[in-house]
Amino acid sequence: MYIRPAATATDDGLRYLQIFDSQLGWLCSIGSSPQWGSSPRSNKEELQVEYRNKVKSSEQCWNEPWNRESVRAYIAEIEIKQVELPHRLLELAIESTNNRVRVPVAGMVLQGQSSEYVRDIIAENDDNDAFIYLSYITSDRRMAPFGKGAGARLISHAKDEALRLGFRRLCLDCWRGNDNKLIRYYEKQGFRAIGDFEVNNWQGTVLEMRL
Ligand SMILES: CC(C)(COP(=O)(O)OP(=O)(O)OC[C@H]1O[C@@H](n2cnc3c(N)ncnc32)[C@H](O)[C@@H]1OP(=O)(O)O)[C@@H](O)C(=O)NCCC(=O)NCCS
Question: Which of 11, 52, 82, 136 could be 109's S-S partner, Cβ–Cβ 3.0 to 4.6 Å?
Answer without folding.
Answer: 136
